[in-house]
Automatic annotation (TrEMBL):
Coiled coil: none annotated. The keyword Transit peptide does not apply. Pfam families: MFS_1. Residues 1-17 form the signal peptide. This is MFS transporter. The chain crosses the membrane at residues 44-63, 70-88, 94-114, 126-145, 165-184, 205-224, 236-255, 267-287, 293-319, 331-351, 357-377. Keywords: Membrane, Signal, Transmembrane, Transmembrane helix. It comes from Craurococcus roseus.
Length: 406
């Protein structure tokens, strides 16, 4: 089991390294290629839209072919994305560059299922740790992605970042090689049963999980996407913004070494609420000034907040469905979560261009408050069920909260 989790760790790291590197470059390249500067974050928005769009096809592929063939197809999409990005930079074409974001988003969307695969190969008691450990692959990606950008951005003069995308194209190939050694669960039987999607998404446990994931990823993406542009406007170079994004990525994935233990000890609601508080603290730090350390500290807090909320949301989701429903529940979750991320990517450039850095930061506070309120409500419901069960024990109920079929 731990060997499979380790392989998933490295595959997740390689998949996310391209995305972290893209976070450094995308808005800057978009700003240079687009005539309308409010469209500078459009490539990121397209990538997140493609990530959302990948949810349902990925679910179908995983259900019919299994995890490993699905992940290989995702790696191929990421490879095509890097090469198309390189073509857009070579030709100086904003539309071609945006086309690369479609393939990159599809690959990233499939790669999001590595955390679900970790939950499937792990025993129930080890599941929170397996999820968080696979997500710590982002620590490796945080070191690798920005460093590739720093050392390859001028490799093909005068085309800035062309060498970077050609280098990033090697990462999916390495991922495919690692997947050849993986032994992952087979697809569920066609007649596995389970509830339809409309029933799954109506469960309070699913709603709490998906909203927590939406807010975690949406608020993080809203701030992170425009940070390189804001730093450029403040006079910082590409190296400085790459370092800030690198610190942010380490903060996103580094806590994964202990987030699972925190969840096992304190529960998902408390850990997720702590993450929301750290994300709110990011706003306070970000509004204190626009020096390098203001950006670095704010993005670090935002990264840790994202980790606590998103790992908690994934753990909550794993308990909100039965095994036969896992593909449907995971596809529906990612469709909703990354649909939100796509919207925030579109909004990030527009809000930043129209309202400025302060307005962009303040805009994440209302959704954080909604997430905390929902977590409190879900915890209150769980306490009520526990109290009721001590008075009148009921028949066994599966983790999804639906009575077992007899």
């Amino acid at each position: 089991m731990k060997r499979q989790v380790l392989l998933l760790f490295f595959c997740s790291a390689l998949t996310q390294a391209s995305t972290v590197g893209q976070a450094v470059m995308a808005a800057l390249i978009g700003h240079s290629l687009a005539e309308d500067k409010s469209l500078s974050t459009l490539p990121v928005a397209i990538q997140m839209t493609a990530t959302m769009a990948a949810s349902i096809p990925a679910g179908i592929v995983f259900a019919r072919l299994g995890r490993r063939p699905g992940f290989i197809l995702g790696a191929v999409a990421a490879l095509v994305g890097s090469l198309t990005f390189a073509a857009g930079v070579w030709w100086g074409s904003f539309p071609v560059y945006c086309l690369g974001a479609v393939f990159a988003g599809l690959g990233f969307g499939v790669g999001q299922h590595y955390r679900f695969a970790a939950a499937e190969v792990a025993t129930p008691g080890y599941r929170p740790r397996a999820i968080s450990l696979v997500m710590t692959g982002g620590v490796l990606s945080a070191a690798l992605g920005p460093e590739i950008v720093k050392h390859t951005r001028d490799m093909v003069v005068p085309h800035l970042f062309l060498g970077t995308y050609l280098t990033l194209a090697l990462l999916p190939l390495l991922c495919i090689a690692l997947l050849s050694f993986a032994r992952l669960p087979p697809p569920p039987p066609r007649n596995a049963g389970g509830a339809p999607v409309r029933e799954i998404v109506a469960r309070p446990a699913f709603v709490a999980a998906v909203v927590t994931g939406m807010v975690a990823f949406g608020t993080m993406n809203l701030i992170m996407t425009s940070t390189p542009v804001e730093m450029m406007l403040c006079g910082f170079g590409i190296g400085a913004s790459a370092t800030v994004i690198q610190a942010h990525a380490v903060a996103m994935y580094g806590p994964g070494f202990f987030t699972g233990r925190l969840i096992s000890r304190f529960g998902t609601a408390r850990v997720a609420a702590t993450g929301a508080a750290l994300s709110a603290l990011c706003v306070l730090v970000g509004l204190q000034g626009q020096g390098f350390w203001h950006f670095a500290a704010a993005l670090t807090l935002l990264g840790v907040g994202w980790n606590f909320m998103f790992v908690s949301a994934t753990t909550m989701l794993s308990a909100a469905h039965d095994p036969a429903e896992r593909v449907r529940a995971q596809a529906a979750n990612d469709l909703i979560v990354f649909g939100t991320v796509a919207c925030t990517a579109f909004l990030s450039g527009a809000v930043h261009a129209g309202g400025g850095w302060a307005a962009l930061n303040l805009s994440i506070l209302p959704p954080l408050a909604v997430a905390v309120a929902l977590l409190a409500w879900q915890r209150w419901r769980a306490s009520g069920r526990d109290a009721a069960s001590t008075v009148a024990p009921s028949p066994a109920v599966p983790a999804s909260g639906r009575p077992a079929h007899r």
